[in-house]
Amino acid sequence: MAEDHRFKVLLRAAELEDAEAQYYLGTMYYTGDGVEKDYSQALRWFRLAALQGHTKAQFNVGGMYYNGTGIAQDYGQAAKWFRRAAKSGDTNSKSVLGLMYYYGEGVAKDAEMAAKWFREMALSGYEGALYEAASSDMEGFDTLLDFEQCYCWLLIAGPDVSQYAEYAKNMVYTDLSQMQRDRAQEVADRWLQARSADQREMEYPMEQGDRHTLSELLQMAEAGDLPAQCRLGDIYHHGIGVRQDYAKAAHWFRKAAEQGYPAAQFNLGVYHFHGMGVKQDFAESAKWHRKAALQGLADAQNELGMMYFLGLGVKQDYTESFKWYKLAAEQGVVEAMSQLGYMYNQGAGVARDAAEALKMNSKAAEMGDANAQCNLGSMYLVGEAVKQDYERAAELYHQSALQGHIGAFGNLGRCYAKGWGVPQNDEEAYYWLYLAIKEGYTEPIALKDEVADKLSGKQRKAIEKRAEEWLKSLQ
Fold it and tell me: What are φ and ψ of residue 221, in 5° steps?
């Protein structure tokens, strides 16, 4: 019963375009957690979350296309989604992209692009990428100078990065003169010394305005300084001057969180929610978000509102959800304003109030929230708590659509098909409806087919090309 309830709550939220709910619904279908395993459904929900910028979902969609899981194998689509995730900072996606460029999978074979992705990670201290960077030099080119560079990368990476690293270094070693070996060793030594010096001498700014080196921060943190402990967590989380290490970040966040530091409590809540450096545990996440929220931290209040809304780690409770979203919205969290707009409109956790829904959606829309823009557009379209205004509705749908909101794609396409607020235009209607369906929103399929019948095959092909090019520009 509990699993059935969790699924129903997540499904409702996912259908309302909550990216986190879509991601976890995809995870349930992928693993068979509480539902029958269904890769096609997993892909559907991962894709919807990915379209809203959810980095883990983007990586998962890329992986499913790459492996042909739940869909025909398509390296081109895999590369597209890995690229989106990589641009959001996902290190796994960067590594996979490097390999795809190296082997020419879904992209033109390009040793230089492969090395670019590997070295981007290598220069931040990720030894696995150092080895891959060496491999791209070793196998992608055939001059002695490149073998010398490869040897240098392998020296920097060290022997423990891969079972093949020492073998590769010895193999390259035999192809180099003593002068080249010495030169590569000198460069590697300088690089390692510089990296070590940078880590020692780099100064990190604190909220109070002062700056400290890593060693100073460590001394302060060990002495119990809460801002220093939280700052160390940030440093290891982002890999600023050190190798990214979620476990170390979680360690320092916990140190400060257990002593009541709200920013650290929030970060620890996020870590438990996503399973970063710690075991994923929604109840533990809710515990830490609540501690930070009770101290007035707006982001924690917003996250706690989401967890009560979805029933993640806590018993699902719309009234509690509304309470925390309202507190976050009062501090200017735009996501909370948008969610309040929905809850007022639906009467979820509060008496239904279309005027308040209009107010909240208007505030969030003015701040650029795509969900609020789409929802506000629908209120203008039907004249709910506001004078009916097709032009304003179409304008809001357009603003939302330009941010990639798939619901707005469909709504804007319908406006063009019907001539609501814009001149009736079958080509524009087909363009936006095609985008909606291409990106996984299937509700307007019948309308798209109806519009398609009014266009020639040549027109449809040109519009689809234009739509694909626009989607590509978002990557």
Answer: -65, -45
Question: What DSSP state is assigned to residue 211?
Answer: E
Domain of residue 217 covers: 205-331
The model carries a pTM of 0.71
Q: Domain boundary at 331, 352, 385, which? A: 331
- How does pLDDT run along the chain (475 residues), one tens digit per residue? 445 666 777 787 777 777 888 888 898 898 888 888 999 889 989 988 888 778 889 999 999 999 999 888 999 889 989 888 887 777 677 767 877 887 788 888 887 787 666 655 544 444 444 445 555 544 444 444 455 666 676 676 665 444 445 655 665 577 678 888 888 788 777 766 766 665 556 677 777 678 888 889 999 999 999 999 999 999 888 777 777 788 999 999 999 999 999 999 999 999 998 888 899 899 999 999 999 999 999 999 999 999 999 888 999 899 999 999 999 999 999 999 999 999 999 999 999 999 999 999 999 999 988 889 999 999 999 999 999 999 999 999 999 999 888 899 999 999 999 999 999 999 999 999 999 998 878 889 999 999 999 999 999 999 999 998 887 776 5
Residues in Cβ contact with 274 at an 8 Å cutoff, skipping those fewer than 6 apart: 56, 280
Tell me how far apart the alpha carbons of residues 246 and 265 are, in angstroms, rounded to a whole number: 15
289 and 169: one domain?
no
Q: How far apart are the first and last CA of the chain?
A: 41
Are residues 8 and 155 located together in one domain of the fold? Answer: yes
185 shares its domain with 277 = no
Q: Which residues of 34-73 are buried (b: 16+ CB within 10 A; e: fewer)?
A: ebeeebebbbbbbbbbbbbebbbbbbbbbbbbbeeebbee
Q: How many structural domains compose the chain? A: 3
Burial (Cβ within 10 Å: 0-12, 13-18, ≥19) of residue 272 = buried
Q: How far is CA 286 from CA 38, 308, 429, in A?
A: 29, 9, 44
Assigned token pair, 213: 């080196």
Boundary (domain end) residue, out of 180, 204, 228 = 204
- Whether residues 428 and 286 share a domain: the answer is no
Residue 359 belongs to a domain: no
Query: For residue 456, how many other CB atoms are within 10 A of its CB?
Result: 8
Whether residue 47 is found in the same domain as residue 179: yes
DSSP 213-277: EHHHHHHHHHTT-HHHHHHHHHHHHHTSSS---HHHHHHHHHHHHTTT-HHHHHHHHHHHHHTSS
